[in-house]
Write a structure and sequence with these properties.
single chain, about 120 residues, mainly alpha, TIM Barrel, two-stranded parallel sheet, 2 strands, about 5% strand, AKR_Detox_Biosynth, Aldo/keto reductase, NADP_OxRdtase_dom
Length: about 120
């Protein structure tokens, strides 16, 4: 990322929400209406592997978001923008699209970034 910015090259962030993991969607299990529940994806899905390998860090991410009372989705999107990464966001419903767009301009406390950098 540093070399891209020094060369004035833009960077796209694919799946900035880690297929919903960083939104908090799966904090209490898999919702019945989610794509993962509809398909038997957890047996081989990269998302499940990512989650299991990073569970402690993901849990800490949510603790930080909760301590500041901020939406985890907004934090993930704003994190990308702070790092000059342009997030490629997907949505499976109009409501998700509206939340993603709102996250682009979310106001977040400056102190949160220092805590997130430690994770």
């Amino acid at each position: 990322m540093i070399s891209a910015s020094t060369k004035r090259v833009g960077t796209l962030g694919f799946s900035p929400l880690c297929q919903g993991i960083l939104t908090g969607k799966y904090r209490n299990g898999i919702p019945e209406d989610s794509r993962i529940a509809k398909k038997d994806l957890l047996k081989y899905d990269k998302t499940a592997n990512f989650y299991m390998q990073n569970k402690e860090r993901i849990d800490r991410y949510f603790e930080v978001c909760d301590s500041y009372g901020v939406d985890p989705l907004s934090v993930a999107i704003r994190w990308c923008l702070r790092k000059e990464v342009y997030p490629v966001m997907g949505a499976s419903s109009p409501a998700q699209l509206e939340k993603n767009v709102a996250a682009l301009s979310a106001e977040l406390p400056d102190e949160i970034w220092d805590e997130l950098e430690k994770i």
